[in-house]
Design goal:
Elements (H helix, E strand, L loop, with lengths): L2 E6 L23 E5 H9 L5 E4 L6 H10 L5 H4 L3 H8 L7 H22 L12 H23 L8 H16 L1
Antiparallel strand pairs: 1-2, 1-3
Helix pairs in contact: 2-5, 5-6
Length: 179
């Protein structure tokens, strides 16, 4: 599970267990600790907040530049398996709003790769650079592609022009001939 890095604002009592390297039972103010998202959000929601939020490194400027340059070369499976899902949760802690734009731009760039993965004959699961959600989308698209191909090959339902469309074309042609 992805974790958020938090900086402890004030020293909470008996929270030394959150930092495995801490010798005391209490955390010192300014200590950086990686904790799960659900715990980080509950500690941040308290009044006054016990922690301040730091974005994980995969959503910071250095990775954002890499993703904006060419997101298709990034191995999302290694970077973060739940990049989009976790990014949606993290985005509310991003004051500048850059995480949301990064998520959208990354998906836009990777969409063609995702589309080609879904229609290729190779197994979608064998494509390493996709995140979990991208793999699920590609697998669903491949399933729909196979279903469409099967339906077209069966040929039991021939597509024909609807009467309304045919009549509309005839009316338009008649109107044009009158002019």
């Amino acid at each position: 599970m992805d974790k958020k890095k938090k900086k402890i604002k004030r020293a909470p009592k008996d929270h030394g267990f959150l930092d495995p390297s801490a010798a005391d039972d209490d955390l010192k103010a300014g200590t950086n600790v990686e904790i799960p998202l659900w715990l980080a959000e509950s500690l941040h929601a308290r009044r006054p907040p016990l922690v301040s939020v730091e974005l994980p490194k995969i959503y910071k400027d250095s990775y954002r530049e890499i993703l904006n340059a060419d997101a298709c070369t990034v191995d999302m499976h290694k970077l973060s398996q739940y990049f989009y899902e976790f990014g949606c949760y993290i985005a509310k802690h991003d004051i500048k709003g850059e995480v949301t734009s990064t998520l959208i731009n990354t998906f836009r760039q990777r969409f063609r790769m995702l589309l080609s993965a879904s229609v290729s004959t190779d197994s979608v699961g064998a494509i390493q650079p996709l995140s979990v959600s991208e793999r699920l989308q590609a697998a669903e698209a491949a399933s729909m592609e196979r279903a469409l191909a099967g339906w077209l090959q069966r040929g039991d339902s021939v597509l024909t022009t609807a009467n309304m469309v045919a009549n509309h074309r005839k009316r338009k042609r008649a109107e044009m001939e009158m002019l």
